[in-house]
Write a structure and sequence with these properties.
The structure holds 2 protein chains of 2 kinds. Chain A is α+β, with helices and mostly antiparallel strands. Chain A contains 4 helices and 4 strands. Chain A has a domain of 68 residues. In chain A, strands 2-3-4 form a 3-stranded antiparallel β-sheet. The radius of gyration of chain A is 20 Å and the shape is elongated. Among the domains of chain B are: 42 residues, no CATH class; 59 residues, no CATH class; 60 residues, no CATH class; 123 residues, no CATH class. Chain B has 1 helix and 25 strands. In chain B, strands 6-7-8-9-10 form a 5-stranded antiparallel β-sheet, with no helix packed on it. Classes of the chains: A alpha+beta, B mainly beta. Chains A and B meet through β1, β3, β4 and α4 of A and β16, β17 and β25 of B.
Chain lengths: 124, 436
């Protein structure tokens, strides 16, 4: 019998850099395959979330959306590959990936950052 | 010679009157001076008069074959080909101006002997410096058009693909075997390329026995740097000349046909006083842009080895429920499928304010191709060796999560972690580093 342990979803901290940044979702590429009688069904999407920080530094998260055969076969509608729009595919990504968590990740401190400390040259 | 006096049509001078000019159908004189300057060493001396336009003007006719020229010739041996050189006007009467120097038109060249010499004498050294031996100037004034006046070295041979004429740079050091020639030429082929080569010259070697050793080629297809570096000698040195300082970068960019940086190798100084540095290999992920620092860091190397860059990081506020309940620290669908991650978790340099003060651990997890059910695989939970500030039984437990039609995430709890109120709010940092 597997132990039942409660799961919580703590809120991810949003750092000040978040509000000073702009974000962009980019579709980098897609893969298709034949599902049943239908060809060119999108089964894989490469995407990129870009955060442009206040100092113009760009930080990126590269993610993947991958649909299983079961998901594809259960799909209620199908749009021919040639008719897909960028906004439509972005909508799929946003429905799949935790974009808000990714944005907070991109605007969180780097591991080598020591809070309140700055690099100094040696005094001699 | 007597003077001829009078202008009558039937006036005839006598041979006696003509003197050395008698019986001549052309002038055959020596030591002729124009401009009142006589030099016994030369047959003709011409001196420019004050305010005059020049000292000699040769005018040809309107045809190319009739262009004016000056020809130089030696008295050649019987049966030998004439050795000569010529300066001529090579233009035409309407639109073209060109001066031409031809050498040895009668052929018979000799290895190592140039067809045209430009000598710059400075012997003994008078201390002057930076005197050009040859100046090719584009234009007579700043108003001259910029697109004129290039130097072109051309090969006319069409028998087969052939290189351009070569430019040689040659020194003349003291030792017999420390002289060298460095040359360059455009190689033959369908794409342009400049080949640069070198050869050490022995004491008796000359242009005729240069043995080319390619040291570089810069072409449209490939650039090559090739040398005989051996042992610990580098084959290529990139030397930063800016004053060393902390954070100073230098490196190499790799751009694609759209002139965007696909990747870069960047070296960053970490001290103004020492040569310490980090090396970063940066790889663009489709965001475009240019510059050494534009692509994100994929791999960083310093003296201690490799430092990975986290793919995902998240920060949370600790609460006492973290001791008993699983906390979702990496949401489902964030990690890639079929991937291996190193996940670290710590208090981000902060303290719980009491026992165990710090708690840091790590785990390596592998994600599945996909998930189709909600929950956690608690049967495979992993308790990591956990670093604390004082002796403690607190330890991080990791478990992979999954959900319907999704991908794995990660949940954790801090077994035997602090439950006192001061610990609440302590920052917890989670970072995922993708290994495969």
């Amino acid at each position: 019998m597997t132990e039942e342990i409660a799961i919580e979803y703590p809120e991810q901290i949003k750092f000040p850099a978040y509000d000073a940044s702009t974000f962009e979702l980019k579709v980098l590429g897609m893969k298709t395959k034949t599902v049943g009688e239908t060809s060119s069904v999108v089964c894989f999407i490469d995407y990129l979330v870009v955060a442009v920080l206040e100092d113009e530094t760009r930080k990126r998260f590269k993610g993947e959306v991958e649909y299983s055969n079961e998901e594809l076969e259960a799909a209620e509608s199908f749009v021919p590959y040639a008719d897909l729009t960028e906004d439509q595919v972005k909508g799929w990504i946003e429905a799949y990936a935790p974009i808000e968590s990714i944005k907070r990740s991109l605007t969180s401190p780097d591991p080598e950052d020591v809070p309140g400390a700055t690099d100094e040259d040696l005094p001699w | 010679m007597s003077k001829l006096i009078g202008t009558n049509a039937n006036q005839v001078p006598t041979n006696a009157d003509l003197g050395s000019m008698a019986y001549q159908d052309h002038l055959n004189l020596t030591n002729i001076a124009f401009g009142l300057e006589y030099d016994n060493g030369y047959n003709i001396t011409i001196r420019r008069g004050i305010g005059g336009d020049g000292v000699l003007k040769l005018i040809g006719d309107s045809h190319t074959t009739g262009n004016a020229h000056i020809k130089f010739e030696n008295q050649h041996a019987a049966g030998a080909t004439v050795k000569n050189g010529m300066i001529s006007f090579d233009g035409d009467a309407i639109k073209q101006s060109a001066t031409r120097i031809d050498s040895s038109m009668g052929q018979d060249h000799q290895n190592g002997i140039p067809s045209l010499d430009i000598y710059h004498y400075n012997y003994p050294d008078d201390g002057t410096q930076n005197v050009p031996a040859l100046r090719i100037r584009n234009g007579n004034s700043s108003a001259d058009m910029k697109h004129h006046g290039f130097l072109s070295l051309e090969s006319l041979f069409t028998g087969s693909a052939y290189e351009s004429p070569r430019i040689y740079f040659r020194n003349n050091a003291n030792g017999s075997n420390d002289r060298a020639v460095v040359g360059m030429y455009a190689v033959s082929g369908t794409t342009g390329a400049l080949n640069i080569f070198a050869d050490l010259l022995g004491s008796s070697e000359n242009y005729s026995d240069i043995s080319e050793e390619q040291i570089a080629q810069f072409g449209q297809g490939i650039a090559i740097i090739r040398n005989s570096g051996h042992g610990s000698n580098p084959m290529l040195r990139l030397h930063q000349r800016q004053t060393r300082q902390n954070g100073q970068t230098s490196g190499i960019e790799f751009r694609d046909a759209t002139n965007e940086t696909n990747g870069s190798i960047m070296v960053t100084n970490t001290s103004a006083g020492n040569s310490s540095a980090t090396i970063q290999i940066r790889c663009d992920d489709g965001d475009g842009g240019n510059g050494l620092t534009d692509p994100p860091v994929g791999l960083q190397v310093n003296t201690n080895g490799i430092r990975l860059q986290s793919e995902y990081s998240a920060f949370y506020s600790y609460a006492s429920t973290w001791v008993t309940s699983y906390q979702t620290v990496i949401p489902n669908n964030t990690l890639g499928p079929n991937a291996t991650y190193l996940v670290t978790i710590d208090t981000n340099n902060a303290s719980f304010g009491g026992h165990p003060y710090y708690a840091a651990g790590a785990a390596i997890i592998r994600t599945s191709p996909g998930t189709n059910g909600n929950g956690n695989n608690t049967a495979s939970s992993y308790v990591a060796p956990t670093a604390t500030h004082v002796a403690s039984s607190a330890r991080w437990e990791f478990t992979v999560s999954h959900h319907t039609s999704g991908k794995n995430g990660l949940v954790v709890r801090l077994l035997d972690g602090p439950t006192f109120s001061a610990a609440n709010g302590t920052q917890i940092a989670v970072r995922a580093y993708r290994l495969t």
